[in-house]
Amino acid sequence: MRRVPLRPGRWAPLCAALLLAASCGTADGESGEGPVPGAPTGVTADAGTAISVHVMWNAADSGVHAYEVYRGPTKVGEVPAAQHMVDVTRLKPSTPYVFTVRARSADGRLGPPSREVRARTPAYVAADHVAPSRPGRVTGKVVDGRAVQLSWAAARDDRGVRSYAIQRAGVKIHAVGGAQTATVVTGLRPGTRYAFTVRAQDAAGNLSPASTPVRLTTPGADDRRGTAPTGFDVVSRHTAGSYYLDLAWDPPTVDGVITEYQIRLDGDTDSSLVWGGTPPSGRAHHSLYAGRQAGRVHRVRLRARLPDGTWGGFSAERTVTTGR
Question: pLDDT tens digits, residue range 166-189?
């Protein structure tokens, strides 16, 4: 048998490609540190209107940095790890959809998809400007220190109720289909008093007036430790003849998204900071105007409005002098 000599460099590209394929991981693999996140559980999908579906899920295991929501094979949403629901919009009326959710680690690796959930958007209802009636009396009972069960009498609508929104402090925190008149709300804190209301929505997106509130207190004690911003720091800055206080902090880790903070300056409530868009997932920053005089001493601290509508604990108080 005749030997065929290998020409130098002829096989180098192929060898390099094979070595690269053998050494590289994928976004779905175990190439990073630690295991990939598990699949989210308890995924539900409810068509709230003719062009939107509300998708919810339970938290996956530890190591989650964000969740990605898919409509079929297409990614249609991404939320931080603390958020467990999203409204998928710009859909078509009278159309079936399939959704899955995947957890992503901080280094970009995706865990396995959740089980598929299906929802069908209703037909579009033109020129419907009549909102559903107010849902009937809401009742509730405490499940444990972190969950309550709510039920209510059905609302009425001339073309049918498509969904119900459960609200705390005027903020939607849960949703169920229009045929459902009971649900369990989780992610609460022990030893805390809550007021819940329910609103009905039709296929055209019209919202009913809020129901009368039901007030419940979860059992247990809550000293609010763990709900305060951490790493709080304040420095003075001089710009164009004026002094500013530059604030920086790490948001508390809670089950949900924080969109509002209350800032206390020298013992008084100075301002309420509300994020207009997506809140920062990492360290937060804000600046306060502190006048034009140097040498003024200020005391500053802040707290977050938690996803359950209550205020968390205050951060450590910092003292800063303008011009120093």
Answer: 998 888 888 898 999 999 988 788
